[in-house]
Write a structure and sequence with these properties.
By secondary structure, this protein is an alpha/beta fold. It is about 15% helix and about 25% strand.
Length: about 170
């Protein structure tokens, strides 16, 4: 349904800028960052989200009425498996996080949780129609490191990705 819902959408993001002041994350600043192909990586220990960026629904008009937002959480913990945790998606609400203000028009949202340490690779996509929120919301749960779901991973380099994930754990007691 993503292709049907967003047939003319475009996004270009080739780097992330780490912000230490979460108050500066809003749709307007994300649109400005998109002009230089940047997304936002949140400060360490930021509640509910790790990164966010904007996509355009159609054409190249940089305006809030032509914007959709992607909000990410990356979990490198074996407690996050192939089984969805719906409360995590609820914690990514852009109104509660002040990315959107109550007077803002509802914009399309894609919430992605990467459960990177999951032993069983899986991909779950849930589409919520625009009933309560006013715009379409997608919840995407990507579990594990798999070439089926993450295109940078191939059968030839899968061991490298697993080693990188293991190295990011630090020392385990």
């Amino acid at each position: 349904m993503l292709e049907k819902d967003f047939p003319n959408a475009t996004m270009h993001c080739n780097h992330f800028i780490k912000l230490h002041d979460f108050k500066s994350v809003n749709v307007e600043s994300l649109l400005l960052l998109m002009t230089c192909s940047a997304g936002v990586m949140c400060a360490n220990s930021q509640a509910s989200i790790d990164a966010t960026n904007i996509f355009l629904l159609s054409g190249t008009k940089f305006h809030t009425t032509n914007a959709g937002t992607i909000i990410y959480q990356m979990k490198n913990n074996e407690d996050y498996t192939h089984k969805l945790k719906p409360k995590l998606f609820a914690s990514m609400n852009p109104y509660d996080l002040n990315i959107l203000e109550p007077e803002d028009d509802a914009i399309l949202l894609i919430w992605i949780i990467f459960a990177l340490a999951a032993k069983i690779p899986s991909l779950h996509v849930t589409r919520h129609p625009p009933m309560t929120y006013g715009a379409i919301i997608y919840d995407i749960w990507s579990a594990g490191l798999s070439s089926k779901f993450l295109s940078p991973i191939t059968l030839n380099n899968n061991d490298i990705w697993k080693a990188l994930l293991q190295a990011s754990y630090g020392w385990k007691g």
